[in-house]
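thread: overnight batch results

M.L. [08:02]
morning all. the overnight job finished for the chain we discussed friday. pasting input first so we're all looking at the same thing
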Amino acid sequence: MTLNILFFTITIRKRKVTLQEAAQQEMVEKLYEQNRDRQISMHNFM
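M.L. [08:03]
and the structure it wrote out:
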């Protein structure tokens, strides 16, 4: 009888976000919200 055991260790670390990346992400979210609001207003208009 052969018993083969294989173990994996997975380490998850929170990624550090730079100031530039945070500003970029904030701008993307703001533009996304503006476009979504524009789509909703056009949908309600029609």
